[in-house]
Amino acid sequence: MCGASCKKYLDINNNPNSPTVTNSQLELPLAIVNAASLTSNMNDYGGQTVGYTANAGGYGGFGASWTYDYQPSQGEGFWDLGYQTLENFQYIINQTATDPANANYDAVAKIMKAYIFHMLVDEFGDIPYSQALLGGANFRPKYDSASTIYPALASLLDSAITEINGAGSATAIPSGSDPLFGGVMVAWKQFANSLKLRLIIRASAVVTFPNMTFSSDGFLTGDAIVQPGYALALNGSGSQVSPSWSAWVGNYAGSRAGQAWVPAYFVYGYYDGTKLSDNVRGSNIYFGWPLDSVNQLGITPPNNTKTSPFNAGAWYSGGGAGTSLGNATGVEKGPNMGEPLMLLAEVNFLQAEADLRGILTGTAATDFNNGIANSFGYIEEGPSATSGTSGPGGGGYSATYATDAAAYQAANSTSYLANYSLATTPAQQLEAIITQKYIALNFINGEEAWSEYRRTGYPVSSSLVINNPYGSMASTQSQATNPNHLPTRLPYVASEAATNGSNVPQGISVYTSTIFWAQ
Questions:
Q1: Cβ neighbours of residue 417 under 8 Å, at least 6 residues apart?
Q2: pLDDT digits (tens, 9 = 90+) for 259-310
Q3: pTM metric for this prediction
Q4: For position 12, what pLDDT does the model report?
Q5: Would you say 489 and 510 are in contact if contact means Cβ atoms under 8 Å apart?
Q6: Are 214 and 158 a contacting pair, CB within 8 Å?
Q7: Which of 44, 53, 96, 364 has the most CB atoms in a 10 Å sphere around its CB?
Q8: What is d(CA 316, CA 342) in angstroms, rounded to the nearest whole number?
Q9: What is the pLDDT of residue 319?
Q10: Residue 120 contacts by C-beta under 8 Å, 6 or more apart in sequence?
């Protein structure tokens, strides 16, 4: 499931005799870029399960992607890269935790530690946490309850914000050592608040958080994008491209990527008029709009009827050839595009749900509309946005994004999924928020959309799978026993059974064992 992008993008050998701050300066970009690769890899898996992608014609070997008969090897890449990246961040924490001069490094590592652990919980449930990352002190860590890890992560984020606020004259993080926010600590605090809001929205209905408030720094005001210097030049130049581009588009040498997958009818229906009409985002995201290579997972269609002539997959909407490939809008913008960890649009929709539930005191309709507008903003911008600066405040959004979003809502004014004023019940309001979040995350963060579907049941996926490609996100060859014919989680990995078997939870079913926050 990891695919071509499951690899480390920096290779740094630490010298233990070097000053601590130098080690942290070297380790931090490595860890952040690995976190971006993990997010990209999990987007691929999430997209398959949540109705973003389907198999193309003329290819085979889809196996468990069709049946959901996940074996212990299925999530091995996520588990391994996740814990390897956590070890990177824990190294920084171990080096800086007792040194006030390096408080900023310690705080950033804690924030990213919370980010990685929460993704692993969302796919595996109970995992090693309190005894993890101890190195040789404990080779067989216990598995902590997922429902206790979530509040602990929220507290970790709080402590990171407090540490930044008290850093005083601590060493600043150079922009070159921070490919996410360029050393801007206010942005890191806003990211921590936004992650905490995600945790609280997902789990506060079933667990108690010790602190449901947020620091006065507020939430993200732009897209959180990792940009370590992904470059246009490929193949022997020493440059490294965005992991999403590498996995889904191709390279200038002519090798293709992602050709075995096409958009799924389920998500396509939110663009082509079946559920909603959205020509602007649809034409920016997909090659050859309107599409004629669309499928439902599990069906073997004829060979693709439309493929990009640029050695690119279905999610590259641009033109060019050779070294001019790239410089596009949509989700696959170019080999030099940054990797988003969290979109501003997602934060807006989190705020809208928090308003709806009384967690925040804002206006749900306003945050809902902002989420739609900022989704247009990200989709319409090109690949040149630098780390942490993409957004409506001068960071790259097009001049027309707000106008285009307003036109979209006007064109769909009779649907409460786009016109929040027509959502007259809490259930309809939540469905509208989560459905628009689903659209905004399309092929950007499939794992997050998949988690939100499992939590809320939105967007609605019918129990009728066969001959219902627009209505069901499930595979026609699903072996899942649930009414929606979808899996519920990933199995524990084989390496854990081999090395930590006495602690691995038993009796786990990928069809019936749910994550603690799921329906």
A1: 275, 276, 431, 432, 435, 436
A2: 889 999 999 999 999 999 999 999 999 988 888 789 999 999 876 545 554 4
A3: 0.94
A4: 35
A5: yes
A6: no
A7: 53
A8: 21
A9: 80
A10: 78, 79, 82, 83, 127
